[in-house]
Write a structure and sequence with these properties.
The chain has helices spanning about 10-20, 35-40, 60-70, 85-90, 105-120, 155-165, 170-180, 190-200, and strands at about 1-5, 25-30, 45-50, 75-80, 95-100, 125-130, 135, 140-145, 145-150, 170, 205-210, 215. It is α/β, with parallel strands linked by helices. The chain has a five-stranded parallel beta sheet, sandwiched between helices. It has a four-stranded antiparallel beta sheet with strand order 6-7-8-9, covered by helices on one side. A hairpin with a 2-residue loop joins strand 6 (about 125-130) and strand 7.
């Protein structure tokens, strides 16, 4: 899952990004409303954490612009304000949830997970079965047959990209885009390293390399 944080308090934004990255999300951070709107418009994020008091454009206007353009990405609004009218205004512009500063990090993570579950509940089941492989994207649990396989957060995130498109070719660029943030400038072959680890843990035949195109999670006939 790829998240966008739009927050002008840099220490808070970077702290949230560090924590959410440890939870297994790919996290991008911007500190300006206009830049936040641009990134949320151009990139398919799974959730946006949006402060209200921002330079450039405030959070209300960013949220309203995204909804007017037809973007249905879940939006969790953050604000230092405290009052039912501020909350109502945020929700009226199209936000899905609202959190007042100061807030508990544990509560924020719970809200993020709830919004992502809610979005998933409107679509496909979070449990994906491909042959002997079972992946629960909500609980972050993986089984091969009766045996549970332990994966790191990044390993699970790479597998999630493949299992959500089982039988289709998933490009290395797409995996990089959804698992690592936009600031990543390391070796793109990092994807190959994680795929190799997944093959070792899950079984080599499960993930097929499609030369020049990417990887495909094989669906048994």
């Amino acid at each position: 899952m790829r998240l966008l944080i739009v927050e002008d308090e840099k220490r808070l934004a970077l702290s949230l990004a560090k924590g959410l990255t440890a939870e297994g999300y790919a996290v991008d951070v911007v500190h300006d409303g206009r830049e936040g709107l641009h990134r949320a418009t151009e990139t398919p994020y799974d959730l946006v954490i949006l402060d209200i008091m921002l330079p450039g454009l405030n959070g209300y206007r960013v949220c309203a612009a995204l909804r007017a353009a037809g973007h249905d990405v879940p939006i969790l609004m953050l604000t230092a304000k405290d009052g039912e009218y501020d909350e109502a205004e945020g929700l009226d512009t199209g936000a899905d949830d609202y959190l007042t500063k100061p807030f508990s990090y544990v509560v924020l993570v719970a809200r993020v997970k709830a919004l992502l579950r809610r979005r998933g509940a409107a679509g496909a089941s979070p449990v994906h079965v491909v042959g002997e492989l079972t992946v629960d994207t909500a609980a972050h649990r993986v089984h091969v047959g009766e045996d549970e396989v332990t994966l790191t957060a990044k390993e699970f995130a790479v597998l999630e990209q493949l299992v959500l498109r089982a039988g289709e070719v998933v490009s290395k660029a797409r995996i990089l885009e959804h698992v690592w943030d936009f600031a990543y400038d390391g070796d793109p072959n990092i994807v190959e390293v994680y795929v190799s680890t997944l093959r070792r843990k899950l079984g080599a035949p499960l993930i097929r390399t499609v030369r020049g195109a990417g990887y495909r999670l094989e669906v048994p006939r």
